[in-house]
Amino acid sequence: MDQKKLYIGPRLRRLRREQGLTQTRLAEELDVSASYINLIERNQRPLSAALLIKLAETYEIDIQEFAGDGGEALLDRLTEAFRDPIFQELEVTRTDLQEMASGNPAMAEAMAVLYRAYRDTAQSLSDQENSASLETATKPLEEAWNFVQTNNNYFASLDEAAERLSREISLRSGNIQASLARRFNEVHDLTLKTLPANVMMGAFRRLDRHRNQVVISETLDMASRHFQLALQLVYLEMGTRLTTVLGDLYKGSPEGERLVRIALANYTAGALLMPYGEFRASAIELKYDVDALARRFDASFEQVCHRLTTLQRPGLEGIPFFFLRVDAAGNVSKRYDGGGFPFARHGGSCPLWNVHSAFKTPRQVQTQIIELPGGEQFYSIARTVSGGGAGYDAPRAERAVALGCPIKFSGELIYAQGLNPQNAKATPIGTTCRLCDRQDCIARAHPPLRKRLLSDDYRRTAAPFAFAFD
User: Fold this and answer.
1) Phi, psi (degrees; rounded to nearest 5) at 133
2) What is the span of the domain harbouring residue 15?
3) What is the pLDDT of residues 198-234, one digit of tens each?
4) Residue 449: which CATH number?
5) 276-322 tens-digit pLDDT
6) Are 208 and 310 within one domain?
7) How far apart are CA 273 and CA 41, in angstroms?
8) What is the pTM of this model?
9) CATH code at 78?
10) φ, ψ for residue 347, nearest 5 deg
11) 418 and 350, same structural domain?
């Protein structure tokens, strides 16, 4: 055996503790003094070859493994540590690390442990920073969503003004684009021009004051053209009204205020194209058939869904709908609640909701009864929608939207004709995994925040997590 001195105190201490021995008891079994064991464990004395052999015989350990230099595993851990940029200027070679691991394995082990602690701490701080940054980045959007929800997604002064303007320009009595173009020309001395995508340079709409033009991209479908033109008219004729509503109702951050102004402008554009009284009457007549309403008002499926969530005029309410839009990865990009649905502030939605399976059947409406853990039931329809311009290589975004309402209103929907809610089967869902307490859900991605996780060594159920209800 190599006669080099073995300073392997931490390994001896670990072995002693694994055997459940005190220093005194170990010394008795090895026929040495307790003070000698203490010195060895503190690396103040080397472990002799004779004592190493006696250790191996007494506790049936592998001498090479116990007294070795830590093997490749320790060397790899040291290599990983000294590869960190903080050691870059030291130019530590692998030979240096091999000498450290073999000459003083205790220090090598300590260095590896210290680096692991440093790395874990750095990762924790990074996670906290990213979480704080994410919170800061999403806060204005959350403020905007919460503002809309607090006001039940209905703004009377904007809705009524849009309805009056729609009647004034006879928007619903002829060609919508022609009516809007005439308004731009007669009131604002602006002409309407359609331009190719390469000229628009990525823009869908632009107000060109130099040439007195409102220019629109030819890549937009007709519903999108109508909406962009209506939006531009809102900014031109109702900008002051938007500012007044903001001043009266919004008390959040400047960043949130900009998003709220955009949301209010979009709201008003929708109200201009789908004026409240006519739209509500049509919705009732057509039993809230979204596709039929889209054809009648020359709008898109998503635009109609948006408008349906805003029918909250006192005395002339529509069905209280809620709305959600997600992409294929489950990211929520829009949500409006008019039906009492408890959307989660963070995270995605439940994967069992049909808004996610809608991607399997593009452009087809799916229906579903969903039930929350508290027993509340809702009727939901979902369908995919596309965003972006037209053209073979034009970028497009495929998303899915869900429109839902409390189950008691399902009888008014064309999608639920003949449905008996009392006998219909509901799909149990949650708002998001971390806030859902359903114990037997096989689709769960995260354990619930409010429950204690259980460990079960004897069985594995279909659900990925087991947790207590205490």
Assistant:
1) -65, -40
2) 9-110
3) 888 888 899 999 999 999 999 899 999 999 999 999 9
4) 3.30.450
5) 999 999 999 999 999 999 999 999 999 999 999 999 999 999 999 99
6) yes
7) 82
8) 0.68
9) 1.10.260.40
10) 85, 175
11) yes
